Known about the structure:
It is a single chain. By secondary structure, the chain is an alpha/beta fold. The chain has one domain (about 50-215): Rossmann fold (3-Layer(aba) Sandwich), CATH 3.40.50.150. The chain is about 35% helix and about 25% strand. It has 8 helices and 10 strands. It has helices at about 5-10, 15-30, 30-35, 55-65, 75-85, 135-140, 155-165, 185-195, and strands at about 45-50, 70-75, 95, 100, 105-110, 125-130, 145-150, 175, 200-205, 210-215. The strands form 2 sheets. The chain has a 7-stranded mixed sheet with strand order 3-2-1-7-8-10-9. Strands 4-6-5 form a 3-stranded mixed sheet. A hairpin with a 3-residue loop joins β9 and β10 (about 210-215). α7 (about 155-165) packs parallel to α8. The model is unreliable at about 115-120 (pLDDT under 50).
Amino acid sequence: xAPLTRWLDRRRxxxxxxxxxxxxxxxxxxxxxxxxxxxxxxxGDVVFNLGASRGEWTDAVLDQQPAxxxxxxxxxxxxxxxxxxxxxxxxxVHVHQLAIGSTTGTMELSDAGDAxxxxxxxxxxxxxxxxxxxxxxxxxxxxxxxxxxxxxxxxEYDLLSALIETGDITRIDRLQVxxxxxxxxxxxxxxxxxxxxxKTHHCVWSYPFVWEEWQLRP
Length: 218
């Protein structure tokens, strides 16, 4: 986003100030350097990538731990099919063409490429498969998740609430999440989730509505 566009957006929507301030701090402090430190993963560690898109983040993890057990969640059919092709023959990379959250069924997803969302409005949309976290873990024998990355365009509020309510949040050792600020009330939603998440995890670092990391308490 160009500087003038950012300035105009902030003037018109002052409730986005937390996001723009965090973006500036993220750049100044090279926040990306924190985001991509995965050298502590060991062979066989389970890693979840929610919002896998084109698989770039998966590549970054596998560059540091080639033997990680990767689970890629991508409801967009075009991206999911491309991921299947990209990682074909790699038995430790599992592509799930669905979104996990609070319910099992279907939902409408806007068709906006890697910004496709069940929350933000776009001109085109399609139906995608959803699965509740309870149903997913009932069918997938995963006890411990060493690392989970969540970038799902607004659906993180539903997902994290479901993980906390079911207790499955305690399966996750390390959580990296990008909260999205599409509407003013999402600030309160983030605050509520962070308060509940703090009971099981501690926040290691945070750039509000950009990226933040939580680790399971001992």
